[in-house]
Amino acid sequence: MRYRYQNLNLIIRKLKLSDYKSFSSLFYSCFKKKISYEFFKWRYFNDRHSFCYGVFVSSQLIANVGMKSMYLNNGMSQMTFSRHSSMVKSRYRGLGIYSKLLNIVRNKISNKVKILIMWPNKNNYGSFGIKKNLIKHRKYYLYKIINKKKIYSKTENFNIESLGNFKNLIVQNNDFFFKDYDYFKKRYISYKKDDYYLNFFKFKNMFSVYLIKKNKKKLGYDNVILDHFGSLKIKSKHFNQLKNEKTNLIFLSKRKINKLNYKFINHINIKIGLIKKINSLKVNNLIKKEFAMGDTDSFLSIE
Hints:
The chain is an alpha+beta fold. The protein is built from six helices and 13 strands.
């Protein structure tokens, strides 16, 4: 579709795989990071619902929003969209182009979903035109534990391809998004599987599994906790054991932590936008559920 806006001739459309170079160029100009074709394809073309929508001036991509389809853990597996790869070329910011893009995308998906998930940062305030009273806010804190000493290991690491051996432990608990075996398989095995591993912990007759990413650095790597499944009763015990075994452990916290060996990295802000009327009790029950680091695009395989 073509628009005349702010004396600009804009083309607003869904991106194709052939738009990768334009997407990559805009991504680098906004975030100073490279992004691979494999990631672009995996993230936005791996299922029939996910997509990117962009704004072009002539053939140049100047703005983009990526919508990743997910399912709510509400007993009905209702679809939602999680917003990622939001970016506008610097010279076109402040003109209202991004807001117009979000409104167009909202109109296209409003008959499919009732809830949208957004991960705002200091440069991204767009909310798809959703009224403030229909947006719920959540805030997490990202920390890195720097350990110099290790204690005796009581956990065990497994290759991510061993996920099938733990299939019976993947049951729905307190996650905001619906996560079954197929979800974990598509999310962590279908792309850059060598970056991930499973950490297993057993206590009495209970089992717990953390899914961890090896985030490579110049020297060594960080261990980034992305997700969890298994017994919630021993989850905190597993975490306490893990933080004493692993060096450079990165994790999300719902609360601020003031400890000498805990380095604060950043805030992770979440907006849950209601684009259709939903029973208030159902909304409140859903809002109480937890998000994980793996739900965001942070620490994904950006090259």
